[in-house]
Design goal:
single chain; alpha+beta; Thiol Ester Dehydrase, Chain A; 11 strands
Length: 325
């Protein structure tokens, strides 16, 4: 894999979305919440922008794995397995349903490496989402391409949990939830629904739970437990696959909170409204956080995990949050 990809650095693509509320209704239903509570002008919950600006390539433009053919926006990397490896998301202002928005995506890194599993290639894409001329979300998305798995060797989780979590929930993703999540993201990647393809082509023992679904399940668990905390920044990393039919745990470790008098500018007030009182409390990822006059702000970082019965991590995320009291 010695083909240079430096010419892809700086490549940009822009897309548009009407931000229809119906998309958030489908997400709420997928996460077993009441879709009737979602209305126009609701602020999106954290990372819900992933359900918009979805790929629209024609069926004939898709590769065997269900992804669009490489070489259009993303570089034509020859490694066969593609994974959403992680990323960082900064919430700057509230994106709202029913208001048109634009997303500008720019490739900022293409890096080839050799790991213990063979050749790897990392691609980082920066996304900037604007609505009404206001920059609302800045995101760095890391994509990794890998060699095919050795025949008979199923990819598995290998990183052990660092210790006990402060709290946990049990989750068993099923085929219907994976299907619905693929549908609302218009994601045709076959590893999420085609068991024969998973086993015979990519070496997985069963369909793989989407990386973005793992993070949304983490966010749902966090905001259900901490209803007054507003998530302002997210850093997450996929550590190993979670398979359809597995029972896993979602848990968190709270770091010590810092306290300071509240002094907010317009942007930070809008950020708080992302998880604010205008969002239906039944919406996954929502909370009742909202700054109220002269108040005190607690801020902190909660480290969240999804891990299996063997104690190894599927996904780890650091959620930076604020809480007005």
């Amino acid at each position: 894999m010695n083909k240079p990809f430096s010419e892809w650095i700086g490549k940009t693509r822009q897309s548009y979305d009407s931000m229809a509320a119906e998309t958030m209704k489908r997400y709420a239903a997928t996460m077993d919440r009441n879709p009737a509570l979602v209305v126009d002008d609701d602020p999106l919950s954290p990372c819900a922008h992933w359900f918009y600006f979805t790929p629209m390539e024609a069926l004939s433009e898709l590769a065997e794995d269900g992804h669009p053919h490489k070489g259009d926006f993303l570089p034509p990397i020859e490694l066969p397995r593609r994974m959403w490896a992680g990323g960082r998301v900064k919430n700057l202002s509230a994106l709202r349903t029913g208001r048109p928005a634009t997303k500008t995506s720019t490739i900022t890194r293409v890096e080839q490496k050799n790991g213990r599993t063979g050749s790897l290639c990392f691609v980082t894409v920066v996304h900037q989402l604007e609505q009404g001329g206001v920059l609302c979300v800045e995101e760095e998305q890391d994509i990794v391409y890998r060699e095919a798995a050795p025949k008979g060797v199923a990819p598995k989780r290998g990183q052990a949990m660092p210790g006990r979590t402060d709290w946990t929930e049990v989750w068993k993703p099923d085929a219907v939830q994976l299907f619905r999540f693929s549908a609302i993201t218009f994601n045709a990647h076959r590893i999420h629904y085609d068991a024969d393809y998973c086993r015979d082509v990519e070496g997985y023992p069963a369909p793989v739970v989407h990386g973005p679904l793992l993070l949304h399940r983490i966010l749902q668990a966090f905001t259900s437990r901490h209803t007054s905390r507003c998530v302002t920044h997210i850093s997450y990393r996929a550590m190993g696959p979670v398979y359809l039919g597995e029972t896993v745990k979602v848990g968190g470790i709270d770091a010590s909170a810092q306290t300071q008098p509240e002094s907010r500018n317009t942007a930070s007030s809008e950020t708080a409204d992302v998880a604010g009182k205008k969002l239906p409390s039944d919406t996954p990822g929502a909370s009742d956080a909202s700054p109220k006059g002269d108040s005190t702000v607690h801020s902190g970082v909660t480290t969240m995990f999804i891990f299996g019965s063997e104690g190894n991590i599927g996904m780890q995320a650091e959620l930076s949050w604020e809480e007005s009291i």
